[in-house]
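Thread: Newbie trying to understand structure tokens

Hi all, I'm a second-year student working on a class project, and my supervisor (Dr. K.) asked me to get a predicted structure for one chain before our next meeting. I've only ever worked with sequences, so writing a 3D structure as a token string is new to me. If someone could post the tokens and maybe explain what I'm looking at, I'd be very grateful. Here's the chain:
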Amino acid sequence: MTIKELIARTIELDSDGHLKNMNDWDESLANALAFEEQIFELTPDHWKVINYMRNEFKTKGDAPSIRKLTKESGIDTKTLYALFPKGPAKKAAKIAGLPKPKGCI
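---
Reply by user tm_fold:
Sure, no problem. This is what the structure looks like when written as tokens:
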């Protein structure tokens, strides 16, 4: 567990670097987390993925895998990797304030 200060707030992260308390998440924190991941602006397509992931987690209790993301979010694989380079499901989950999806390394 890590404690980090972002946007004048102290947050706890799990061993994978994801929020320990999902209730700490809001859009301003998402922007700060994205910046730390070298994503300097969250576009409407980023938000489409983030909101899809949050809705999936809310209804099913787990963040969706990359396969599910590409099939159901409306964002194709190539675009997903462009939006969230080097591990889009894990990176998008982190920015969305969710735990690492099962199946992600």
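A couple of things are worth pointing out once you decode it. Helices lie at 27-36, 44-60, 66-72, 77-83, 88-95. The CA atoms of residues 28 and 69 lie 23 Å apart. Feel free to ask follow-ups in this thread.
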